[in-house]
Design brief:
One of its GO terms (molecular function) is polygalacturonate 4-alpha-galacturonosyltransferase activity. It is found in: Golgi apparatus membrane. Its main location: Golgi. It is an enzyme of class 2 (transferase). The structure is a single chain. By secondary structure, this protein is an alpha/beta fold. It contains 25 helices and 14 strands. The strands form four sheets. A seven-stranded mixed sheet has the order 7-6-5-8-11-10-12.
Length: about 600
């Protein structure tokens, strides 16, 4: 009898041993025989079957308490927030069934759910969608913030991910031998075209179609296969470096082309402005000579008035400068505005101000070509500046250095560029003590500001004459709005200094083309710093000037190529300029000039 029982125990133990070790041997043999991809799928299937009972338990709870359940509420949480939720749920379950009766059942729903288990066999879901019968708010641990994604906030995470995969697929295609038509190459080409068509010109995730999102997973699997085929790391690294270099070259070429087109657009005259000039010119020559005279001519050279001057060949630009100055002034009857232009634009600008006479102020139109202040060969000298930009070699750009000769009877004058808008009364400028200086200007030598300019950027300090006479660390300043003491100018004979420096610059490259660098040298140590609120720059370029600085400024300056009368002008700054343009005028409407 004892012998029989002993054999029975041996048999039972043997069967138990077989039942324990047989699955282990089976699984190990299968893992050895399958590929890495199959091994991963097999492990996933095994984990799913392991928790099938837990899934059934969840389903049972759902059917039992499912009456009146709301639809799943879409939420996203940080990993830290969700871990705190798991810890709280675990503690509640371990307290026993008493607490279970007092709380509603929480149902965890997700389209893509991965389930894990802790030592106690509790279900620890890792999901991105949670819901229950009430509005559920996950508890936050100390120092953490709720990072729930706002439904209206547009993101581009998926877009970037898809475009990265397209670039990766194209990289693998470049690794394939020329003329290769293998299956992996055909699949890469097909998947790449599909993704490119699906994405299109979308810039935000919300613009993506469902089809585009469905194509991401097949592309991921295909890229994994390609990584197993193209596994020559040195060759891949070399190819990627070459691709990176070519891309950088293309980007630089595009930047150069964009800069060239921007400069070209800045030099051209818009069709509407050309039309306006032609109409005004024909109207001017149809007038009788006695009707071409401006009123209040007795005030032209009276030093008791506040005199302003602008050099311009643009009808609308000069009009905005004059109109904004007069409309902002508290005493417009004390203003005498001198508009200096060339013989080509003199009829159009004269006709414009004759049609729009400012009864409160005095306006004078001057033709620089009719004056004897400029040297006879001045045009030829300007051409030697080694610049093809007509803005830099125009006589109007350099005629400012002859102000004492143009206005011999005046003591002070305010000089404007024609791309400014006046927003405040400027009468306080005339009471500023110049302290023996010639030019009052806003400085541009503070590093970190958008208006920063350094002497060494525009002036050639490698020249021994320049290096011995000037300092590259000298503070720079800006044209645009300048208070000029003409009496001090005449005493110091600065026009002769300008001519001397200008002649030197025609013989060897001493500075960049334009009037600003030679202005720094001509008025070296002859400038008085004005408060920066008098003159705010940067509205004609990518400067990031603040709106509060613009609103507080007395004069705003559209320096740069993005002028407000051009299509390339910055839209958010154009409104300050458009306020002073009479778009209701008949000529402007006929020439299709609109805000």
């Amino acid at each position: 009898m004892k012998q029989i029982r002993r054999w029975q125990r041996i048999l039972i133990l043997s069967l138990l041993s077989i039942s324990v070790f047989a699955p282990l041997i089976f699984v190990s043999n299968r893992l050895k025989s399958i590929t890495p991809v199959g091994r991963r799928e097999f492990i996933e299937e095994l984990s799913k079957s392991r928790f099938r009972t837990n899934d059934l338990r969840l389903s049972a709870i759902e059917h039992e308490d499912g009456e009146g359940l709301k639809g799943p509420r879409l939420m996203l949480f940080k990993d830290g927030d969700f871990n705190s939720l798991v810890r709280d749920n675990s503690s509640d379950q371990s307290d026993g069934g008493n607490n279970h009766k007092n709380k509603e059942e929480q149902v965890i729903v997700s389209q893509k759910m991965t389930v894990s288990s802790d030592e106690k066999g509790q279900i620890l879901p890792t999901v991105n969608q949670l819901t229950n019968k009430t509005d559920f708010k996950p508890p936050l641990s100390k120092g953490e913030k709720n990072t729930r994604v706002q439904p209206n906030r547009a993101t581009d995470v998926k877009i970037k991910e898809i475009r990265d995969k397209i670039i990766q697929a194209k990289a693998y295609l470049n690794f394939a031998p020329p003329g290769s038509n293998s299956q992996i190459v055909r699949e890469l080409r097909g998947r790449t075209k599909e993704l490119e068509r699906s994405v299109g010109d979308a810039t935000k995730d919300k613009d993506l179609s469902k089809g585009a999102l469905r194509r991401v997973k097949p592309m991921e699997n295909l890229l994994y296969k390609a990584s197993r085929v193209f596994n020559n790391c040195p060759a891949i690294a070399t190819k990627l470096r070459a691709m990176n270099y070519n891309t950088e070259e293309q980007v630089q070429a595009q930047k150069n082309q964009a800069a060239y087109l921007m400069q070209l657009a800045a030099r051209t005259t818009p069709k509407g402005l050309h039309c306006l000039s032609m109409r005004l010119t024909s109207e001017y020559f149809s007038l009788d000579p006695e009707k071409r005279q401006m009123p209040n001519q007795q005030n032209y050279y009276d030093p008791n008035f506040n005199h302003y001057v602008v050099f311009s060949d643009n009808v609308l630009a000069s009009s905005v400068v004059v109109n904004s100055t007069i409309s902002s002034s508290k005493e417009p009857e004390r203003i005498v505005f001198h508009v200096v232009t060339d013989s080509l634009n003199y009829p159009a600008i004269s006709m414009w101000f004759l049609l729009n006479i400012q009864s409160r102020a005095t306006i004078q139109i001057l033709n620089i070509d009719d004056m004897d202040v400029l040297p006879p060969d001045y045009d030829q000298l300007l051409m030697k500046q080694n610049s093809n930009d007509p803005r830099f070699i125009s006589p109007l750009n350099h005629a400012r250095f002859y102000l004492p000769d143009i206005f011999p009877g005046l003591k002070k004058i305010v000089l404007f560029d024609h791309d400014v808008v006046v927003q405040r009364d400027l009468s306080r400028l005339w009471s500023i003590d110049m302290k023996g200086k010639v030019v009052g200007a806003v400085e541009t030598c503070l590093e970190g500001e958008s208006s920063f300019r350094s002497m060494s950027t525009f002036i050639n300090f490698s020249d021994t004459w320049v290096a011995g006479k000037f300092s590259p660390r000298a503070c720079t300043w800006a044209f645009g709005m300048n208070l000029i003491d003409l009496e001090e100018w005449r005493i110091r004979k600065l026009t002769s200094t300008y001519i001397k420096y200008f002649n030197l610059g025609t013989k060897r490259p001493l500075w960049k083309a334009g009037s600003l660098p030679i202005g720094w040298l001509t008025f070296y140590r002859q400038t008085l710093a004005l408060d920066k609120r008098w003159h705010v720059m940067g509205l004609g370029r990518e400067s990031g000037v603040k709106a509060v600085d613009i609103e507080q400024a007395a004069v705003i300056h559209y320096d740069g190529v993005m002028k407000p009368w051009l299509d390339i002008g910055k839209e958010n700054y154009k409104r300050y300029w458009n306020t002073h343009v009479p778009y209701h005028h008949t000529y402007l409407q006929q020439c299709n000039l609109q805000a």
